[in-house]
Design a protein that fits this description.
Helix content is 47%, strand content 14%. The protein has 21 helices and 22 strands. The N and C termini lie far apart (87 Å).
Length: 603
């Protein structure tokens, strides 16, 4: 049995068929009026009126039998206009037959040929007017959601079109208003909705439309502006949905593409375009070894490197479980017996040399390191032994087998360092620069900031705190950090390694720093636990309010890629490291502080 909406739709379509029949009838009178030099008396003669009635009846029954009623199309669509044209053409042929093959009507011979043209113009014009007036205007049902669309560009146009076409019987997103900050678009009519102004008009629009959701349809919107819009939506109690970047859509934007704001949107990271040919020259067909392959960055590096078909990819780490997990993610099996795993601690120089002698890698990515700032402040000797001596061991082992390319993974904390982590990673950069000067092969460092989702990152900590019901602990309301996504960082590391000149520190573009408090609030919003409290615990020793990507005095030059720059760092000799003879925590801190904050670039 047909439902009430279906019966209503059929009634509407029958109504349009009657309107088309009336247009055809009036077209006969209009054609006669034109034919008789606009003499209305002659144009309404009995034979012409009879012919007009016959034409209307033919159009109505043709519409019933040829599908205008039974095969609905979107009003004014190409499909509907094509169907109307077919029907009118058939009616036109019948009208020619009535005039030339019967003696029922005494009318001018030109009339049957003019009528279909006038009728089609009338039908199409009426549909265009109705579509222009009604397009985008839909009644909101009890289960529908009233949406304000922010963005009148191409993304907004596609979204409005998709939401308006949504034929779901319930639970639809129904656009009720359109906003855009561009003053040139004010009062512009798009898909039946006039641009009501910028985001500052949101309160007025909500009062007028009772909207409950704000849909951001500007994929190129900056992260700063998106955070402002999120705050505005929160003030007005609106749900916030965003349209992903165009590069991540499989086709035109649709309502299904709208999603909740996530941390990736908050960061506003750009889509990475890699020069695959340059990277392939570095990796394809080469023996590649990755230290710290069980870590967050190391494991993603392994997955990215594998795409470029190295001759052999060796995973080195001291954590057997991490190696197992990385191999499982890479191959789907983790029997640990294929000869690609090296269980080794970079502190053990003898074991490290045995691995390098056995594998003889041509390319080395050194990602193994201790990275937790607070712990290393308490245990500076561990930072010295892993991040400094361990790096020296890896460099020595790599040089001994004639490595072609060595890539040291560094951190933004190595720029103007104020903590043990920064001191130790700065020394690792200086050691890498020293090997670049005095040994064969290319030695570069790659410096970048925090990585979202890495093991032990602030995101992991916040998520765990939220799951426990809070509170979420933030050191200071103004503390901010640079962030990257793990795949993004790994791809840029590969790109930097491919274009890096010997001895350079390649610095990745991290975008704009993000307040940690904003990250915490976003995760709380996403958790749908609004009662989670944020507690400020105070800055910890060695922490900065804001990190830096470049140290004072470093000369920044382009590396030939939009997202990568290069700087030079002072060298420090391996002999100076060996002669330090540090065996206690405090001397380790003091020595690293002195060496990390002194020295000049030698040319």
């Amino acid at each position: 049995m047909s439902t009430r909406p279906e019966r209503r739709d059929v009634a509407v379509r029958i109504g349009w068929t009657l309107v088309d029949a009336l247009i055809v009838s009036l077209s006969v009178l209009a054609a006669a009026w034109i034919r008789f030099d606009m003499d209305a008396r002659i144009a309404t003669a009995p034979d012409i009126l009879s012919y007009s009635s016959a034409a209307g009846l033919l159009q109505f029954f043709a519409g019933l039998t040829l599908g205008l009623v039974h095969h609905p199309h979107r009003r004014g669509s190409f499909e509907e206009t094509a169907q109307v044209a077919r029907t009118t053409l058939i009616v036109g042929v019948a009208l020619v037959g009535l005039r030339f093959f019967t003696d029922w009507f005494s009318i001018p011979r030109s009339l049957p040929f003019i009528v279909p043209v006038i009728a089609l113009v009338g039908m199409f014009a009426l549909r265009f007017i109705v579509r222009s007036y009604r397009w985008g205007r839909r009644d909101i049902g009890d289960t529908d959601t009233a949406v304000v669309v922010y963005g009148a560009g191409e993304g907004g146009r596609q979204l409005l079109r998709a939401l308006t076409r949504d034929a779901s019987p319930n639970g639809r997103l129904v656009p009720v208003a359109l906003l855009d900050d561009d003053p040139r678009k004010r009062r512009m009519l798009i898909e039946g909705h006039r641009v009501s102004g910028g985001a500052d008009r949101l309160a007025d629009v909500i009062e007028r439309t009772d909207a409950t959701t704000l849909a951001v349809a500007m994929p190129s919107l900056s992260a700063d502006r998106l955070r402002e819009i999120r705050t505005l939506a929160r003030i007005h109690g609106l749900d916030l949905l965003v349209l992903p970047p165009v590069g991540r859509l499989l086709g035109p934007a649709s309502g299904a593409d709208l999603r909740q704001l996530n941390l990736e949107d908050l960061l506003g990271r750009q889509q990475i375009t890699m020069d695959a040919a340059t990277i392939s020259d570095t990796i394809t067909g080469k023996r590649v070894l990755v230290t710290g392959a069980g870590g967050s960055i190391g494991s993603e590096l392994v997955r990215q490197i594998a795409k470029f078909s190295p001759a052999k990819l060796v995973l080195l780490d001291r954590d057997e479980s991490a190696l197992h997990a990385t191999q499982m993610s890479l191959t789907g099996r983790a029997l640990l017996d294929d000869g690609t795993l090296a269980l080794c601690d970079i502190r053990d120089s003898a074991a490290l040399q045995r691995v390098f002698e056995a594998e003889r890698p041509e390319v080395v990515f050194h990602a193994a390191a201790l990275k937790h700032l607070t712990l290393l402040e308490q245990f500076p000797l561990e930072a010295w032994q892993s991040n400094v001596l361990g790096t020296a061991n890896v460099l020595t082992a790599a040089e001994a087998v004639g490595v072609e390319k060595f890539v040291n993974i560094s951190t933004d904390k190595a720029a103007s360092p104020t903590c043990v982590l920064g001191y130790s990673k700065r020394l690792a950069e200086r050691l890498t620069a020293e090997f670049a000067e005095h040994h064969r092969g290319t030695y570069v460092s790659v410096r970048f900031g925090n990585v979202l989702g890495s093991r032990g990152s602030v995101i992991t900590a916040f998520t765990a705190q939220i799951e426990r019901g809070g509170p979420v602990t933030v050191t200071h309301p103004d503390v901010e950090r640079y962030f990257m996504l793990i795949p993004e960082a790994s791809q840029l590391v590969l790109q930097a390694s491919a274009i890096g000149a010997n001895g350079d520190v390649m610095v990745l573009d991290m975008g704009e720093p993000v307040k940690i408090l904003d990250v915490a609030n976003t995760l709380i919003d996403l958790s749908e636990k609004p009662d989670i409290e944020v507690v400020f615990t105070g800055m910890r020793p060695g922490e900065k309010l804001s990190e830096e990507l470049f140290a004072n005095g470093e000369t920044i030059t382009s590396a030939g890629h939009a997202l990568i720059n290069r700087v030079a760092v002072p060298r420090i000799s391996l002999q100076e490291i060996a002669d330090a003879g540090i065996e206690q925590p405090e001397p380790a801190r003091e020595w690293m502080l002195e060496k990390a904050t002194t020295g000049r670039v030698l040319t």
